[in-house]
Amino acid sequence: MYINRALLLLMALAFIFLPAIDEWLWAADGGWYRPFVLWIAAIFAAWSNQFRRHTDEL
User: Is residue 57 part of a domain?
Assistant: First the structure.
């Protein structure tokens, strides 16, 4: 089974930086939009990944 290198790197970075991101996300003095920033980033990453894929690939 082939594991995409970019996905493996992303998972490693998420594992390392998740505590800092979680603290930043739920800080009491933060803005209401902070949880949505992560969702927008995830949606943009998925869209850009699909946009670069050729239409004849399955």
Answer: no
Q: What's the domain range around 45? A: 5-52
> In the chain, where do the E strands start and end?
none
Q: Quote the CA–CA distance of 36 and 8 in Å, as a whole number.
A: 24
Q: Which residue has the tokens 């949606």?
A: 43
3-state class (DSSP) for residue 18: helix
User: pLDDT tens digit string along 9-53?
Assistant: 888 998 899 888 888 888 888 888 888 888 898 888 888 877 766
State the Cα–Cα distance between residues 32 and 26, nearest whole angstrom: 10
Task: Indicate yes or no: pTM above 0.85.
Answer: no
